[in-house]
Amino acid sequence: MTTVKKVLEFLKLQLEPGMGPNEVFKLMKPYEIGSMWVYLGGSGARQLIFQLKDKIGTVFLFDGKDSLIAYGVYESEELLEDRNRDLKISPVPDDIVLNYINQP
Fold first, then answer.
1. Any idea where the domains of the chain sit in the sequence?
2. Signed CA dihedral, 83, 23, 1, 9: sign only
3. How many helices (H) does the chain have, and how many strands (E)?
4. Full DSSP string of 1-20
5. Are 28 and 19 in contact (CB under 8 A)?
6. What pLDDT score was predicted for residue 104?
7. What is the pTM of this model?
8. In this predicted model, what pLDDT tens digit does every residue of 19-77 receive, in sequence order?
């Protein structure tokens, strides 16, 4: 998985509606070199972000019930930084295209 396109193709085949964070962690563990959570307000929604090799980042969006609702892949020039983890700032670009998953 060395390009954004290859990662998107891989995820499209692997992800299923209703997957939880633990399933996504298991899927991404062999490829990730860093990860972080970003909480999105009081609804309980949050993003799980993985840094992959070859300057690629992935983001998984979960609803307040921890069901996967969307994912995206982007080029990432920077590694996830400790300051981002501490401040809970999402490193995901604003113009990322999210791929929504049909809920069961």
1. 4-100
2. negative
3. 3, 5
4. --SHHHHHHHHHHH--TT--
5. no
6. 53
7. 0.86
8. 999 999 999 999 998 888 887 777 778 889 998 988 899 999 998 899 999 999 998 87
Cβ contacts of 35 within 8 Å, gap of 6 or more? 25, 28, 48, 49, 50, 51, 80
Cα 96 to its chain centre, rounded Å, is 11
Given a contact cutoff of 8 angstroms between Cβ atoms, the answer to whether 70 and 20 are in contact is no
The answer for residues whose C-beta is within 8 angstroms of residue 27's C-beta and 6 or more apart is 14, 15
Kindly list the distances between the CA atom of residue 12 and the CA atoms of 80, 93, 101, in Å, as whole numbers in the listed order: 24, 20, 9
- Model confidence at 84: pLDDT above 70: no
Query: How many whole angstroms separate alpha carbon 60 and alpha carbon 62?
Result: 7
